[in-house]
Amino acid sequence: MKILAFSDLHRDLDQAARLTEMSKDADVVIGAGDFASIHEGLEETIAALAGIEAPTVLVAGNNETLDALKAAAVAWPAATVLHGDSIEIGGRTFFGLGGGIPVTPWDWSYDLEETEAEALLADLPEGAVLVVHSPPKGHCDEAGNGMSLGSQAILKAIEEKQPVLAVCGHIHESWGKESRVGATEIVNLGPRGRLFNLG
């Protein structure tokens, strides 16, 4: 299974067009949140991605709400928005959780408390592909000031359920960073698009 995954487009329509082209070689596409910028431009960005025909898994970032993303993606037949739930594609389970975790300092941000995230992650199946906007604590989560801004709840879920792959975004300074927790490969994606091959 070939997966194209990206995060944090933030209204970059040119990059959305490039990702749409790249998706022609993919079996599954993942968009790990922040299609908008502070709740602006969500509809245009999703419309620019809606030419992607491969099955696509989306989670909300902290720059758009879950409800807004679901509404924007209604006209995109290939897309499924996940938030504390899963979908099976090609015999593999994909589980998604959106939002900024833990709560960010910005009053406009779509965020979850760690306790909320922990409850929503309880149904994560073992060995799934985990799609989250926020990184796990201590992995691919280092901000420009050196602070580790990831989620304890996401880290705990990865430690306990060992997803085959965990992809995230959110912390721009860690785009492209990779880590590992046990058997789980963790990647902070960024907007360029990254291909993964899962057997």
Structural class: alpha/beta
Order of helices and strands: EHEHEHEEEHEHEEEE
Q: By CATH's scheme, which homologous superfamily applies? A: Metallo-dependent phosphatases
Radius of gyration: 15 Å
Q: Provide the helix percentage.
A: 10-25%
CATH class: Alpha Beta
Describe the 3D structure.
The chain has a single domain (2-197), classed as 4-Layer Sandwich (Purple Acid Phosphatase, chain A, domain 2), CATH 3.60.21. 21% of the residues lie in helices and 24% in strands. The mean pLDDT is 98. It has a six-stranded mixed sheet with strand order 5-6-7-8-10-9, covered by helices on one side. The protein contains five helices and eleven strands; from the N terminus they run E-H-E-H-E-H-E-E-E-H-E-H-E-E-E-E. It is globular, with a radius of gyration of 15 Å. Strand 2, helix 2 (42-49) and strand 3 form a beta-alpha-beta unit. The protein is α/β, with parallel strands linked by helices and 199 residues long.
List the helices and strands and how they pair.
Blueprint: E1 2-6, H1 13-22, E2 28-31, H2 42-49, E3 56-58, H3 66-72, E4 79-81, E5 85-89, E6 92-97, H4 114-120, E7 129-132, H5 152-161, E8 165-168, E9 178-181, E10 184-188, E11 194-197
Parallel strand pairs: 1-2, 2-3, 3-4, 6-7, 7-8, 8-10
Antiparallel strand pairs: 1-11, 5-6, 9-10
